[in-house]
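In the previous chapter we treated chains in isolation. Here, by contrast, the input contains two separate entities that must be folded as one system, with a combined length of 658 residues.
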Amino acid sequence: MAPHVLSNAIVLLLLVAAGFALRFVRGNRMWRDALAQLWRRRRGSLLVIVAFLLVGLLDSVAWTGGQGQDALAAHEARTVIDRLFQGDREASYSAPLADAAFYGGDPLAAPGGHWLGTDILGRDVLHRTLKGARVALMIGGLTSLIAIPLALLFGISAGYFGRRIDDAIFFLISTLASIPSLLLLIALIMALGKGTWQVCLALGITSWVGLCRVTRGETLKLRELDYVQAARALGVSHGRILVRHILPNLMHLVIITFVLMFSQLVLSEAILAYLGIGVDGSWGEMIDQARNELSREPIIWWNIAAAGSAMFTLLLAVNYVGDSLRDILDPRTLRETP
Amino acid sequence: MLAFVVRRLLFGVAVVLGVLGILFVLFFQVASPDDIARRALGEKARPDSIEQWKANHGYDRPLWPWQDFEDNLLFHHYSTMLSFDFGASDVDGAPISQRIREGAGPSLALTVPAFAFGLGLAVLLGLFVAFFRETYIDTTGVFLCVLGMSVSILLYIIAGQYLVGKMLRWFPISGFDADPAVLLRFLALPVLISVLSGVGSDVRFYRTVFVEETGRDYVRTARSKGAGEVRVMIRHVLRNSLIPILTRVVLAIPFLFTGSLLLESFFGIPGLGSLTIDAISQNDFATLRVMVFVLSMLFIIGQIATDISYALVDPRVRLE
């Protein structure tokens, strides 16, 4: 199967999942109230996140064909975002909204068409910045897809079953937590090799430990609560107790941790990009490439400004929403972990 | 008490062995000696040159004890690491322990002042913001913290080098010197950037700690006895917040030795961070392994020291 078909299928799946999630939230009073409160407090940040999500989705829906100027390009799958920026590739740098090339002053293929200028290879910076949104969201999303199930599985079984299982899992998370996380991340990527999947897997393995600790602690508390004890006395099976009574009471922690983790993940990826082991097409990579352009004369500032401010805007919005979510869903138990 | 210390130490030893196990799986099983050799020699290296390289660098043994009990990489890995016999770099054969000894000084020269200034500033700002809790000063302070936390360290460094180093020309852009007077000028900018980039999350953390303390009964008692708000903050709140502050400090100390990967590399400081970055770019797995192990060791020792000092201060900890 061609990669773009898979990606389209995933987008469809995500939309369906989002629809179900929305239906669930509307049907559940606690979540509906939380969402309404969040909307009241952080409308701007939420809208920013939605905008980034939209760009990410539009950059994931791709199809082949269209524009016939280039025989090779016609066979390549291009996303909606790619199609908005078709054709006008320049020879090299050009300033934002310029009519002529940066060096030499040759006329551009698309005079005034590059709102944020072009990079050293003549690619549109706005285009690359928008494409970076998908990469950032993917880093956060894929990593959480790895980290959250892992953390829930180990955290709940350690907290609920206790004894040997708890000892084993506690030992595992203590060991993983004893390796400084950036070094563990680097070690994992060096061992696994470079690439998007590898980076997300490595980020997932380094970031599940924190959530695992939280879920373990919370499960330990929940296990002793009266309604769980009552369910056990009534002969309800372990599996059912876990799914009906424990898991729903952990979901708010999962969501808070996920949102707060997201910005850490994107920031870590930027560091990895500098080390040359990041994800292709990320904002981190753009910043890393733009680092030497500041010493050119005259300076090329639009590259780093575009990538930097896109990243900053998304992370600020996410951090804000995360903070408010924590206040709304859990004013007490989850403190910042050092 | 003795039982607690012994138990804690044994657990620490087990964790060290666990860390070595993880390292072995990552650097011998997932990235096998063949992979490591191929990365050093290039994808198209001939099989006999790969064998030769493995023999030269000590990778020409079976991995697991059940393949060869006398001579295998697992036992070799554990015994060399635990005896701190770190061997030679995969790239140029230089002894790794000597490199670490040489790199520790420059790393500490950067991280210790950065850490001290950062801690002082963060605690002061945290107290200040907590003093004005639930006012505009507090909201603005927290807003600025979140703002600072949302910027990548790459941007801090690049902007700092550009603004202070290139445009204002206050400090040299990068470099290192053994002469303390010169060194001060070289270190000023990285220290400043390190403090700035970390202060946001620290202030927020300390603010949470302080604000939580101000809700306690003893604070109300102190106030009702007529203590002023400033006195309450410094004499009572700050003192009682020392334990969370200390935890954060102790857990941060091992990272002083790591140096800061990015800062050292950007500012050309020949410390452990630069050593690690060089190891990454040159695929020097031997050095990388040792760096991870040494820093994890330091971290584990720090944790044990914290736990034992807690137990000394607070008898309840021993029972848990």
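Chain B touches chain A through 51 residues (CB under 8 Å). Residues 103-270 of chain B form one domain. Compare these points with the single-chain example from earlier in the chapter.
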